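Reviewers asked in the last cycle whether our approach scales beyond single polypeptides. To address this, we selected a multi-component target totalling 229 residues and predicted its structure end to end. The input consisted of the following lines:
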Amino acid sequence: AQSVSQHNHHVILSEAASLELGCNYSYGGTVNLFWYVQYPGQHLQLLLKYFSGDPLVKGIKGFEAEFIKSKFSFNLRKPSVQWSDTAEYFCAVRPINDYKLSFGAGTTVTVRA
Amino acid sequence: EPEVTQTPSHQVTQMGQEVILRCVPISNHLYFYWYRQILGQKVEFLVSFYNNEISEKSEIFDDQFSVERPDGSNFTLKIRSTKLEDSAMYFCASSEVSQSFNYGYTFGSGTRLTVV
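The resulting structure, written as structure tokens, was:
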């Protein structure tokens, strides 16, 4: 069965620091890739997605992610975080011949003012 | 922007009772899903639904669970006899059908189910 691994369980950083969250998946075929954010008490919101084309995708709120096919990775980055980026971040993968998303365990990001 | 609407936002029920969680997917979407997130754990797939039938379900989705699209707009998840371990946030999602196989999902705001 395929799996999605997020390397960090909890990341704590200061405002203006750079953020990088790792995500690896185990599926060998063609996939759609997603990063979702969940602010405290709120629902899942799509940050960005990759279907095909340029492996560097830009999302909302200044986030970007890079798909490296050879490494089965889709890492999320933000050059300078804000306090409002405090949230839980989920990587999700869908093989294109499947209906369902598989989520990683999530990374809690705490940004200190 | 179109939304997936879920009601209620929070449901408290006694163990053994039946609950129905409701969702209104985006109107032109044809695939519907339920996911759940137990507190502190990852989001888990429960079931997908297309063309008025279940297309896939996970091991979690046992005989206690059922889904229905009763009236062409609502998509419901029923838990027949709730257990304490059913306490979780339940998310509904919908997606469009795409010939290119590339499509995203829109999630609802979730229903927090607490079984006491």
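The CA atoms of residues 98 and 104 of chain B lie 10 Å apart. We regard this as preliminary and will revisit it once experimental data from Aim 1 are available.
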